[in-house]
Amino acid sequence: MTLRGRSAAARVLPPLLFAVAVLALWQLGVRVSGTEESTLPAPTQVFSAGWEIRDLLVDNGWVTIKEILIGYAAAIVLGVGLAVLLASSLLAERALYPWLVVSQMVPIPAIAPILVIWTGFDLRPKVIVIALVSFFPIAVNTLDGIKATEPELLNLLKTLGAGRWRRFRVAQLPSALPFLFSGLKIGAALAVIGAVFAEWVGTDAGLGYLILTLNNQVATSEMFATIAVLALIGIALFGLVLLAERLLMPWHHTNRRESR
Amino acid sequence: MTAAPDKLVVEDLSKRFESGDDGGAVVALAGAGLRVAPGEFVSIVGPSGCGKSTLFNIVAGLIRPTAGRVLLDGEEPRELLGRVGYMPQKDLLMPWRSVLDNVTLGLEMSGVGRRQARARAREELGRFGLEGFERRWPGDLSGGMRQRAALLRTFLAGRELMLLDEPFGALDALTRQAMQEWLLEIWQSDRKTILFITHDVEEAVYLSDRVYVMSGRPGSVQLCVEIDLPRPRGFELHGSPQFVALKQRLLTPLHEAARAQLEAQVVS
Description:
The complex is a heterodimer. Chain A has one domain: MetI-like fold, CATH 1.10.3720.10. Helix content of chain A is 87%, strand content 0%. Chain A has eleven helices and no strands. Chain A has helices at residues 2-33, 43-52, 54-88, 90-105, 108-119, 123-147, 151-159, 164-201, 207-216, 220-248, 250-259. By secondary structure, chain B is an alpha/beta fold. In chain B, 36% of the residues lie in helices and 22% in strands. The longest helix of chain B has 27 residues, at 241-267. Chain B has a domain at 91-158. In chain B, strand 1 and strand 2 form a beta hairpin.
């Protein structure tokens, strides 16, 4: 237990110390150079500004969190579903894979205005944009993972009388899990970016909207505080993915630790 | 001997692989034949690329032969898949399953309940040297343990005929010897029928009732030698004149083939 606690501390402490060092340098730099608050506020100014608009941050943050959670969930369903479909049929893969790639060549933030025209100013266009930007790495990684299953293992299952579905469930799905989680991590980062883009196009709530409004008022400290909250949301989402990875792939964790 | 039909008869088996692009074809097997009586331990030795694995894949039902047939208990089954126990070269333990859940795979696939499957596996853990390791991940096991777990998975699948493809090929010499002795003990008490692939002549002589020597490409059976050494066999058998003579007899054609192949390569 103490050993585990110590190794956790060893993992958490370095990035925390690094952050503290950067913030201290930032604070010092701003103070020494006498930079205007509207150009680059010091961390303490950002913090107090954030505290002052805390109600705004909580209300708009909640809107953005909702969009991200729904959009990201949709991306997982869409990404994994597509990967399974493409893996199960060579015809489907040949027909759809190129278009999957093409879909990522379309600048998705640019189609956000069209989505607003089609679906209105509510949650829907944001959820769609978030799902569109984050499903791709999930789909591609999961597909690669399913295909990376050892062919000999599939043969072994055949000789044990396992049909296609069983081979998928017993071998291909678990083989794909590490790949799926790589996709989920990239997708989590993209989901937050997608949310901000979507909110810039057309909305009256959310942290992206708040950033635009604060920018117009040259409320730089408040804007930085909002960005910090967005980053925290992204970190929390990433943390959730890591937690799920640990719970769903306990063997992965122990193996990695032993090989170090 | 009784009139019971052979467990396995392989008749005149051939396999061509069309390589597609250039219209060429590779003949992996050309008229290979062998037989294994119930409860026998039979080995196939041959250089790499002699079609041993192709023969195995056909008997396991994974690929279809171009010509020839495979008889199980005197009959030609419509489907070989699921009839024969199969252990490939790699142990193929799934890293995401505990040792216990890996070895029960065969039972699980044939619809045995989880509880019952685990109970059956637990009975055998001791004999397979896995006692106390059933809840570990395969990644925690040594090479020898992994092979024993893979073997237990094959045993528990419950097929009367088992194909073992170089199961000890990746182990160091000492572990290998110990594993051979252990496998003989298991086989002696269970009397399953085993068809064993190896490129190690000594291993084949030590373990088998009969050894087939396969030649290089295209693969066919070149020599069949009955190993009439007494059982049970111990380590000291390796030094007996009989053992050495049998080994020599099997090695001669393999050695000649290897020389011929080398000379052909050196000249060209």
